[in-house]
Structure formats: structure tokens, C-alpha cells
Amino acid sequence: MSASATAAPAPPKVLRVPEHTVEIVSDSGEGAQKCGQIFAAVSAKMGNGVWTVELIPAEIQPPPRVPEGASGNRIRVGENAVTNWGDRTDLVIAFNEQVLLARHRVDALADDALLLIEDKWARSEDPDIVAQWEAALKELSSKHYRIIPVAMEDECLTIVDNPRKGKNMFALGMLARIYGRDMELIKAQIAYAFRKKSEEVYTQNVALLELGFHWAEDNIDIRVEIPTHASDKPLVVMNGNEAIAMGSIASGMELCAMYPITPATSVSHLLSEVFERFGGIVHQAEDEIAAVGVAIGASYAGKVAFTITSGPGMALKTEFLGLAVMTETPLVLVNVQRGGPSTGLPTKVEQSDMLAALYGQTGDSPHIVMAPATIEECFHIMITARRLAETFRTLVMVLSDANLATGVSPYPTPTLDEAWQAAPLDLAPVKEGQKAYGWNKETGLSERIIPGRPGGMFTLTGLAHDDRSKVAYSSDIHQHSSAMRSRKMAVLQSLLVPPTVYGDASGDLLVVGWGSTKGAIEEAVDRARKEGLKVSSLHLRFLSPLEPGLKDIFKRFKKVMTVEINYSDEPDDPYITEENRRRGQLSILLRNATLVDVDCWGRVPGEPLRPMSIVEAIRGRVPRGGAK
Amino acid sequence: MPSDPRVAQALSALAQPIAEFRAAVQGALAQADAFMAAQTADAATLASHAAAQLGVFAKSHVDPAKFAAMFPTVATADKESQKALEKAATILRRVAAQGEDMALATVSDGRKLGATIDTALAGAGQAFGAIIITELVRGSRYKKAEHEKLLDPTEFRAWNNAERRFAPPLVVVVNGADLHAGALLDFADGREKIVLVVEGAAPPAALVRCITPGTFVLQTVDGTGLDRLAGYEGPAIAALLPEGAATFMHDPTAGKEPWQRLTVPFLPSAPFKAVGGFSAWQMEQDVKMLADLARTPFAVPAAPGAKGAPALGAGEAVDRIASWLLETSGIKGTA
Q: ipTM of the predicted structure?
């Protein structure tokens, strides 16, 4: 370990690599996330593939200098498109040694990672802090990290009085030098990030940026070169929640009724800034139940409405979701999943709302459940969801998660299409004899009547009803109406195409996933195939109805295993038997639908899955020589 | 468009109702076009349309051809219905193409104000018929014998209540000599809004004849009050007049009594000169009528030292009654 560097170093060593992963970690409120976001955005604009993951403490304002308070951003930068956050971090800038320990303890850092760490704690007047510093360095010495202490605050004090507010720009300057980022692009990005602040704020941040840049030039002996490739298509860079917000606008949505809940809220933050320009409004209701009620009411009246929430909010909306199904009122619900149960892990990713989304409503409540697999799909899924909700007169749930919600990645700028928008409201008189639920006996489909259409008056009710929407408790009517609502799911499935297998169409193992794990799974499959394992994968977008042909696809593989960010018992855990094993949620769903013995591998680490973990799971199921 | 800047001012004040009417026309036109296109579309076109509507996400997950077959966007129409719809679409396209000009008319030499407005609104009335035809055809309810006449130009007098509620506003450029206010009353119904841009010498208070309890009436020389006219939920008539004319606003929402509803910032005094067919005596009668309507029903003595201006307008009446009360109670000062 060197002391805070002051002497001129030897010429820098240049690492030319196809990818590198960077983390900036700090206490909450020190700006590490903003630093990471700007670095990621600039890298994407320069032509690198990028995937970011926000490192967010579970508490809103955790105490300073504790591992649990680690806050920041992890950015995987690649020569080509990056589809997941990767395995381990190659370079970290840490604002104190405790947050660095947090990352070390979860095995997030590569064994030879370069760690740039604020060293003022080593010189603290508080002996406890010095002791913590020394203990931390001792713990970190278990790996072959290269640690470079940096007197970040001392340097920043030459420009600002409160370095806590500017250290992130100094760190950004260091990254800019190490990774050869375009300083003009960074300055433009800073100007955008601080567009609501004064000119003075911008100037000061740029001064700190340049200070960090020159400091790294003089003191850091490593440069990392990741080749860039300018895209032939214009790209946009955003996170999944921003993509959902923009997709909802593009789809012609007119109302977002919501109640704030992590990690879904930022969808409404963006919408509240721009939605009105497109004729939409954000309605922040008094609670989750009111929010979904408003959305259903607006949709019933002919507006295109959606609601957005996370697991606990979806639980509260349960009764109203049943109402949407029972009244066949189109409704899109976006659930940005977080760890559960109960309030669980508000800022951490999990996919554990799947079964609640599918089966969590009272009574028999058939509806559509879809899941985007990438940030780009977060945009486009809203158009499809809206169209299906209206066409099938039903509830459509979109299951995103915290990984997609806060992850940032570039994708081709969508080419907007007028056909995505709602057609003008049809207020023509209804056809003679048309009923509120004129169910087609084959399909269960019926034409929706918008209130106000001459001849179309009926009473809307959540009670059992006949095709004229008259309350009816007779057994034959309830049997028939239940069948009609259910039949729509079968009809939709008949319109779906079988999913595409990634890799060979047959083999030893098929890995099945859904949602944000696609990138990590496919990277793991690629690695496993390079090792000679006969592995393929399949990623589902439709969970209800399930995409067709799964049983036939499964039959072509010796084993089928789901991979998801969900808890599942391991077969060799104590007390676990074939009968009592609690399997991953996707596995339960697929076993039920296909009667195939679908195995599962799931983890709930509160972070996205790493490809290497999935590779290990694959190796465990398919040893060299193939599955039996 | 005439170069008179007051025309632009009037059109600007009516922008919202003009936009609403145009949106209705364009919406119906879009529906008519889509319906007609779907009548002749082949399976591939329908599949392509379904794919577009379902969006990029659905591309590799939903079969657009099956989707299009499962959800035909329109019913099949017979020849007669298709022909009627084509005619309706032509009318809607013409009205939509007119833009703001749809809301503008000029009283040419030899024509009367009422006839000019009638002709201008008849075009809009035809659009109402075209919208109805579109709905009937799309709903498979069109019957030639019963509905064909809906596509004929229809004068305002034949419009139903709903159409009068959704009537397009109109800006009419008229010479002062042709300002026959009585003709305007025929159109004071529903939410019709008419703004006259008056050129040349004009009778000073002609629009007083249009005042009814539920009609918003405005005479202005600088556009003051036009913003309130556009937002009024009933019929409204206004005139942008040359300097020297009476200015007043009759706002039905301002009170129950005429003097509460009427404010008269300026009232010219006789003698007047004849204009066109309007005699000086007729003009004087209009001005007197305006003064009478604005007068408070109670006798308010003029404040000491006041120069006997007539009590005109609700605001002034309140001020004067307050002054009188203060004065008679022995309290000094002004209200």
C-alpha cells in the first residue's frame, strides 16, 4: 500500500480490456450515485455497452460509516452490449472504509480489484475511527486488492468549504482520467444533472471534476481502455422506471393513479414532470386502494389508465383488482418488485411477487401477467399491455423489478407509431341488442361499452352478474360467467407464439427464467456452453397465460431448471424431501402447467444474480459428460 | 384572412371552442378513414396493422395475423353504407382542411348578416350530419331512406340541442351599416359564440337588443372581455367596434338582475348620425335602453359634490349605496 501519492509516478500501465466493472460507494447523501450515473451515461454516449445497478441501503438515512449504509452505483462497462451487472467489481472508489467492507463481505470485489479509498479516516482524531480503519484494512488484506489511499477531502477543500458535497465530482474526475472518458461530454452531463441549480453550482462541480482528473493524471499509474463502437442507430440511455413512464406516454395512457412506494415511485416522478404535456395526469391518491380505484374508475369511463406499485401495495389493491376482472374493466398494473414478504427489502430486488400476481386475488380471477426482461422492454411492454387490457377487457399486470427499475442501459431510440395511441373514443350508439357482457360463447370476448353511448346504459357491479350486468346468484350464470372470463386467457394463449430457445433446441439442461435475469442467464449459458456443457435457456415474457409449446420444448431436454431471484429450498438441505421441498415460484408454475419435473435454483441476495453463480448452479445440474 | 388585426384577436379568443370542434371533426374523420380502409384491406394489411397496434414487445410473442383475424376492427358494411361513409368523409375532410377559416365569415356587399351566418354555420351543420353518418355506418345502423338527408347542409334552425351545445364559434367581419343585431338572436342558443368585427361607422349600442337573461353580450373596442366570452357556458355575442361606440358587458353569471349582470364602462351621448338604415333616433333608443338596463333599482342620492353621473353597472351601484349609507349615518369618508 502506498501513502497518499504525491511523487510523480512511472508512466501509467494501460489495460486494454473488453469490459471493466466500477463501483462508487459512500454513505447516503454523498453523491456516489450521481457520480456513477454520469459516468455510465457518458460511457454509453461514447459507444460502450453499459449496465448499472444502484447500491441502495435499506434504510432511508442510515448512520454514517456503517457497512449497512453503503450507497452507490455499480457500472459494468463493455466493448459490446452489456446485459447484466456481471460478477465482480474491478475498481472501486470508496468514501470510507466501512462501506468498502460492505462490498468486500458480499464478495462483490474481484480478488485483484483496485481500491481507491478516502484516507482521512486514518488520520482521524477519534481513536475509535482510527481503530476501525486499521481493522478494516486488515480484513481487506485477506484478498489481493491493490489499495490506493486518496486524500479526497483534503484535495476538495482547496475548492470548496464542504467537501462532502463535492467529493463525488472529484471521484468522477479520477474515473474520467483512468477510463479516458470525454471531459466535454461529462461537463454536458453535469450541466444536465444540475440544470435546476445555479451557474455557480455547475462551475464548482466542473472545477472539482478537473481537480480529480488532474490528480489521477499525476498519481494513478493505471489507465483502462475499453474499445468503443459508435452505434449506427440513435440510442437513449435510461433506467427501467423511466422507460415504463415513457412507454406509458407512448402507449396513449392518460392517467397514472398511484401512491408512493419504493422502488416504483420514480415512474410517477418523471410522469409528473412531463405527462401533462401529452394530455395525461398523475394522480397521487391517499393510499394504494384509492389509487387503483381511481384507475379503474377512469378506465371504466373510457380513459386509458394504469396504476403502479410494488409488492405491499399490490397486496392492498387486491380487492379492487378483483373488481377490474369481475367488471371486465381494462386496467394495467405495474408492479416494480422488491424483496418480501411484508415490507421486506424496499430497495432490493426480488421476483417473489409472481405467484401473488398470478393467484393473489380472491375468487377465481383470471388475468394477464407479463414481464419485461430488459430496460428496453420496459418501454415497449406498456404499449402491448394497454392494447391487451382493452382488447380482452381485463387486468394486465406488468411485473418489473428493482433491478430493471434502477439499472441504466442504452437502447435504440424507439420509433414511435401512432397506432400505439388510443383511437378516438367511440361514442356511437350501441348496436341493437348489444349487452354489457355480450360474451361470445366460444371465446368469452365481448364488446366494451363506454358510458354515455346511446342505448348502452347498464349497472356496473362487482357482484356476480349475467350478460346484461344484472346481479345474478344462480349457479348456472356464475358457472357460465366464470368460464367466459377464464376462456379469454385460453384465447390469448392461442394467439401467442412459442418462445425461442437461446442456444441449441435440445440438450442436457434447459434453464428457464423470467424478468430481469435474462442477461445474467444468457451470459451464464454462453460460459457453460464454452465449457462444453449442453445447456440452453428460455426466457418467458408471458406468465398468464403461459406461452404455448412449453411442454414440447421441455421434452427436448434431459433436465429443466428455473433460475430466479426467489427463495427455494435446496434438495440436500436438512429436512427437505422431494415432497416438502418448497420450490421457486416459476418452477411451481411450470410444473403445474406442464407436469414436467422442473427443478429450480433460486437465491434472494437482495441484489441481481451474478452469471458466475448461475454457471455454478448449471455445473451442479449438468456435470461434464452430460446429464443422466 | 382579412388583415384587420382584430380578426386574429377574435379568433385567438375563440381558440378553445374552435379546437374542440375541429378535434371532433378530425376524430370522426380518422374513424371513417380507418373503417373504409379496413373494408378493403387484405389479411396481410390487417395483420400489419395489428402488429403495429400491439407494439414492438409483442413482435416475437404474439401472432399478428391470428390476432387480426380474432379481432376484426370493423364490421362489414354494405355498398350503400360505404357510399354514405365516403360522402361523409369528404365533408369532414373539407371542414378539417379549412382550419381556422371554418370559423370566419365576411358579410359581403348586398348580403345580410343573418344570411351570412346561416350559410357559414350550415357547413358546420353538414359536418354534424357527417359525424352522425360515420357513427351509424360503423354501428351497422345506417338506413339510406332515413339518414341520407343528414349529409345535406343544415341551417342552425334545424340543429338539435346537442349540436347547438357543440356549435362551432364564428368570427364575422361586417360593415357597421349592416349591423342588424336582431338577426343575431336567431343564433343565441346552445353554446354558440359569435364575434363581430365591425368596420366603419356603426350604430353605437346595437347589441343591446341581443341582451336576454341567458345570453352573454359584449361590446368592446379593444377586446376587453373576450376571454370571458369564450369561457361562458351558454350563447354569446360580441362586437369589436370602432372607437366612440358604447362599451358594455352583459354577463349572465354576474347576478339575477339586469343591473347586476350589466357593466357599462362607456356610454356615448347624443346627438348621433344616421348610419346605413339606422336613424339617429333608433341609435338614441339603443343607448337609452342600455342606460335603463344598467340603472340600479333603488334611488341612491348622489354623493355631495358629485357631478351627477348616472348609476351604471353593479360595481358602481354598490360603491354609491355604500357612500350614501356612510353619509346618512354621519360617518365621514368614502367607501
A: 0.92
